[in-house]
């Protein structure tokens, strides 16, 4: 229930703080409007003089723990009864719903900031920017993988049998179900199974790092893997896997997710690069393609570093913006 003392106290604080210009103005203020005015006025802190304890003292008290907290409560404030008197409350009957009294307590023990939009912007930045950076970096890796795959397939052709006729087509046009003619010196463009072989021996060191030749036959070991060398014999192969689902494709996909260091390549990468052209009389073209790949990776490394620096800058900004806003708000309130 609103008492005359409550009204007089609130009117005196409102006049002192500049919230109202006359005694009559107070009568037309509703509770929410009074709260807003008293909290938005820097002098609203004077309301804490009505109480025998400040928000800073309460905060310091709450930082104590265990027996130390009990000791400080008893020695400094004479226990909970002392706090009760200073806060002008009643442990038995609690606070009333008097809007005037509640408004005075809000002015004395709380702060209202007007920078909510900054928090929203920070949340948006923290949520969206990392996602955009991650998506962009994933797109760069995907483009790297496709460019490298195109480099491997550049000017490479393979003999396939279609409509009972041997046709020479680019290896990128090979599809599952094709029958390929494989001979000495070729690098397998896809994974497949032997249909008919003639003293076929394969170098699988690109996959296993073992230099021993593997003899392949339809009755013993009939599966052939892309990226391996045909050292002896010839074969007709049924294509079972192409592109990223072949052994070479899976290796390239794995390599695209690894951040490579300068002049550091794995054994699988070296073999794939060496197999760009199977014949020895095209070594010059191999060197040119390796150089192009090196330039591409160098550019990607630089881009990755720039993205990392950008991420660090964003993190620093997300920390500085709230701190600066908080500092400005504190200066204004003082």
Automatic annotation (TrEMBL):
One of its GO terms (molecular function) is P-type calcium transporter activity. Signal peptide: none annotated. GO terms for cellular component: endomembrane system; plasma membrane. Its main location: membrane. GO terms for biological process: regulation of cytosolic calcium ion concentration. The chain crosses the membrane at residues 117-140, 309-328. It holds the Pfam family E1-E2_ATPase. It is found in: Endomembrane system. The keyword Hydrolase does not apply. PANTHER family: CALCIUM-TRANSPORTING ATPASE, CATION TRANSPORTING ATPASE. This is P-type ATPase A domain-containing protein. It comes from Rotaria sordida.
